[in-house]
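User: I'm curious whether this sequence folds into something compact or stays loose and floppy. Could you predict its structure so I can see for myself?
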Amino acid sequence: MDVPDRAVPADAEFQKLVAELAARLLEKGWRLATAESCTGGWIAKCCTDRAGSSGWFERGFVTYSNAAKNELLRVYPGSLERDGAVSETVAAQMAEGARRGAGAQFAVAVTGIA
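Assistant: Here's the prediction. I'll summarize afterward.
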């Protein structure tokens, strides 16, 4: 699966990625969770816009504040302080927190500057 170089792909391009992801998740019988900050639920919306998404999409978390990242996704306060909310470390912790919190087999996370 090719991930676009741009920070946020065009809608049509992103829908193609969602279709590829959906096919792979269905093939494996896996469920997806999303953890979003600056996108405010846009990724989850794109997923649930697809017909049949109930077969692979579990839930999404919108955690804009650092407190929400810690409370809902168990992002370590030390990581937020040391690395900042917009870091690979925090994004990885967000994804893992979403996966665990949703009981899903797969998760994606995004954090950035809005």
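Summary: The chain has five helices and three strands. The first strand starts at residue 32 and ends at 36.
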